[in-house]
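TA notes. Do not distribute before section.
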Amino acid sequence: MPKSSQCVSPRSSQWMASLTILLLQIVPSSSYSSSSAYQRPAAGGKRPGFLGRTLILLDVNTRSPIRVLNDNFLSLQLDPSVIKDGWLDFLSSKRLVTLARGLSPAFLRFGGKRTDFLQFNNQKNLAKFRGPGPDYYLKNYEDDIVRSDIALDKQKGCKVANHPDIMLELQREKAASMQLVLLKEQLSNIYSNITITARSLDKLYNFADCAGLHLILGLNALHRNPDNSWNTTSTLSLLKYSAGKKYNMSWELGNEPNAYRSMKGRAVNSTQLAQDYTKLRNLLQSVRYYHRAHLFGPNAGRPRKNAILLLDGFMKNAGSVVDAVTWQHYFVDGRVKKAEDFLKTRLMDTLTVQINKVTQVVNTHSPGKKVWLGGLGPAWSGGINNLSNTYAASFLWMNTLGVAAVQGVDVVLRHSFFDYGYSHLVDQHFNPLPDYWFSLVFKQLVGPKVLAVRVAGLQRKPQPGRVIRDKLRIYAHCTSYHNHNYVRGSITIYIINLHRSRKKIKLAGTLRNKTVHQYLLQPYGPDGLRARHVQLNGVKLHMQDNETFPELKPKTLRAGRTIAMPPLTIGFYVIKNINAYACRR
């Protein structure tokens, strides 16, 4: 079973007291001016010498981390709609497995709105409705799926396939038709039941296992008895089947229980939900293979009044039942029409407020309990085409990871890895989108230990009643131990430049005169912020073939050189051979 990392070092609290853990932290000193972000000097003001040429001085506390996160901090989510639109049958694709493996180690949460409409049927091949589609290909298509399944069954170990292009093209046509059905359900908030068969579960687990992901399976909490208690019949059958197959996975019950009344007209209050989770824990303990399995929940919605009340009641009655507390956050809705809207600092800062609300409730009842963002996406309702699947959305994604890490959120589950809507990391042609490449670089360079950042720069005097929000956001971690190109003790800094002009950053203090490896990610092509392709240090990123990633080659900056961040870009910077004490252990 996966184990959560433990927070460390009493020194962390001392740093937390002296730092503002929001975006850019300031430490006033004789050599640093006190500010939170750079702004132009007031009219008529002169830029004094060195500071006039350098927008910001940057240092990092290398003595001790302020947080230690789960090794699976950046994790993934897969929506149950893949069963309905047929993409589940293609999770064995060699390319898709390769892309998922690139983001391991990670959790894979199988859940979403349709979690509460899943019904398990212990049959290998159940005749099922595959959605609308041209009659002329449907029979051959179904036969191809069966033949593919037979071929996979003959493989030992990890089962992967190279599906013919014509088969994938027919699947894309069928999925496009089914998207209309899924969209209608979403807009009406009325969802039909989905049957997950034993064969479907086998394919799902095979995908997770081949990719090195730990599966978290969401269970239907709206399968209720007449007295509104949770009906466990389907769940018990699923548990027995999974245990018989020795599927090592974790569990979750329901999705956004605070919204049940609007979907089914049947509310489940916090007391009843706590009883349901207690019942599920007892069920897991009754199945020998899962008696120590992890259980996560309650996966509450965005922490507004109703969700907070439900979470508070749940923690009061069942806080000890779950291994981590999960909740969801989405930033924008379908009314957003401009790429620039994803760059608004006010929008980015909403996450900090929401995290504070959730952690306050959790710490009131279960101090120290791990908090997970159990569902995170740039936009509600599956996202926005040509916006939430472009470079523009990556600013929200990277800032989310930075803020969540600094505030101690142990795991962030990104919705969705593949398929449904426009917030996914991989499109239906199995091509990585910008957020995938950012996630890949993050995974390879950023470790679980979070470091405190010290920044100083110039800032104009704030006007009365006006909040100056940071447009230069800097986060620091120990470099990932899984990256063998860097020795222990290296530090990774990632910088988000929301300014429309180039900004310069001078490494100071312990970072002074160190060799730096730059990984600068920019949009590729003429579309700018709406680009669906990314370049790393000027080279376009794309898969070489179904099994080969491009080389993530850094640009070496000589010791002492100032970092120049182009406008509206995101960069990762590895400080080599710094031998940071916090990162050696």
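Switch to the second chain here.
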Amino acid sequence: MDVLLQTRGLLSLPISPRNRVTLSHPSLTLKHRLFSPNPKVPPLSTNGFPKLSVSGRKERSLFLCMAEAAAAFGEPESEKPKILGVEVATLKKILPLGLMFFCILFNYTILRDTKDVLVVTARGSSAEIIPFLKTWVNLPMAIGFMLLYTKLANVLSKQALFYSVILPFIAFFGAFGFVLYPLSNYIHPEALADKLLNILGPRFLGPLAIMRIWSFCLFYVMAELWGSVVISVLFWGFANQITTVEEAKRFYPLFGLGANVALVFSGRTVKYFSNLRQHLGPGVDGWAISLKAMMSIVVGMGFAICFLYWWVNNYVPLPIRSKKKKEKPKMGTMESIKFLVSSKYIRDLATLVVAYGISINLVEVTWKSKLKAQFPSPNEYSSFMGDFSTATGIATFTMMLLSQVIFDKYGWGVAAKITPTVLLLTGVGFFSLILFGGPIAPVIAKFGMTPLLAAVYVGAMQNIFSKSAKYSLFDPCKEMAYIPLDEDTKVKGKAAIDVVCNPLGKSGGALIQQFMILTFGSLANSTPYLGGVLLVIVLAWLSAARSLDTQFTALRQEEELEKEMERAAAVKIPVVAKGEDGNGSLSSVPLLNPTTGDSSSSPSEASTPRNI
């Protein structure tokens, strides 16, 4: 007899059914329990709650969870407390993460603006140092960090790994402001660099400048790594660990709202301390005082990040992931690299990151060379960068408000393609002004600007629009793509992509520029070719985004299916039989031998099924 359920009062069966019920087993699926010739359904007591006594060949006691019984009777679950339509449990995750992102981006803005001021305006250096610095210093240190991080990830817990990475950053920036910079005149080999420059010639200005101002270059690299390591690996890795995809789609774009408020405030902070020199007496190094104040803020924000991370780990529960994720064995460094390279998903993610780095670098170095020509002193340069960061924060804040609409209405794929499109269009505008600035100089003069100042402003607008699209759309898209992956791929994939591929993209752009300069004689002469390279890179970027969209959608569907199957396998269905009076009641029924079944029944005795 096939047992089929009916909703009448509670749950009912045909009159005088043959008693047939078995112990539920976790390995049985919902489909098996419903449609098996000998369905195994747990009986309930008359009140539907914990204890169940049954009579027959063997009397047993069975305990059912009250929540399961309530669910069986169709009782609604109690509504979880909400604030402004958001569950309190979700807010306990989202608010601390937003504050962490605020502090991290606040620090990054100060560090990013300061690193450019240090290496571009230093004596014996210029913007031409940046391609060499990114290629020959930043990239090797990023690769070294990735190898170290991969090894530490195998031996340390997640919390120990977080603190082991972020605390050295905090210590270095504090030491730079109060120790290394004040001693820079004593520890920098100025005389040796001048002597080598006279021997080797001006073409070696960039490499020699790295040696000349080595402590500034070290600060530059650590500031770059703060963006790659603390933002991409530590923060986003932690956010992906404690949020679901549904929460990510809703709140990841909103993280940027708080973060880009940080850009506005940190931009004002940089401008305020950069203007301190105006209020100081003669002979006082205003930049040294500004640097000490800003590094003190960076250290304070760093400790705030550590506190928020500690609080979330101790007071916020982790989401339930699919239990069918493959647990990968611990891999060595070379095995990890081979594994990551063999994954098409990871390769497409890497393409996105490398393409962004190359594209933005092709424009940024040219713009910074114009910027130094317009603002030669450190304080003027830093003050302009403060205004630039504030404008970037406002633009990104606006884009963040639109990004949630884009994700909800058009999905991940469209959102991932907006950033390369914006970067291509604004880059073409900047290069066009560089190429045709001479003929339109009279028109520019009518607005009270020189061609140089116009190039500075247009380049700034290009950077603002590109970075706002990156922060509001590109970064959330990239981080969402990690969520469906298993833990091992997620941790090591992020380390490889965010720590190595990010500087690899910037170094790739720097190598392209170095090649163009050596081939065509100057950066200005190579501008048309750089525009062509930008077009090719963006097309490859769009192709990878399209491929990743397909794979991401498939992984999400697979994960949702696994969760549904796990929930279905955990369902326990109570059986209610009709009494002689026709009313549904929970009657005592004997348990069958789970191995032999009930041999007394026959197909002819099966009752007529009723509709559910």
